Write the structure tokens for this entry.
Amino acid sequence: MAHIVFSPCIGTHDTACMKVCPVNCFYDVPVTELGLEAKADKPDLPNMLIINPDECIDCGLCVPECPVSAITPLDDVPDGEKQYIDINKNWFAGKSTEDLDKYRITP
Ligand code: SF4
Ligand code: SF4
């Protein structure tokens, strides 16, 4: 399993989550690379953070840090947000470690 970031992160992106992640598995990705759009009223926040499912250890430390409740265990992703499971998985699929490291965000 893994934890998943979903839509409230778009337009918020304060990075509180990644500051507590013990394995640094958050990646800072332009939402357009995920097939999504930035919020019309927040064009200065074009990215969201997503979690590498192969690296997340499901510790849950990031969940209470998010001010907009945009992180949950995979099994608890709310109805209407479940597309983020595949959006997340598909973005990581086939990327080399070298490619991924360009996006990894650490404190
Ligand atoms: S659940 Fe733990 S390991 Fe997974 S992203 Fe959150 S802080 Fe990192
Ligand atoms: S998931 Fe939450 S805490 Fe992390 S960057 Fe997005 S809005 Fe901020």
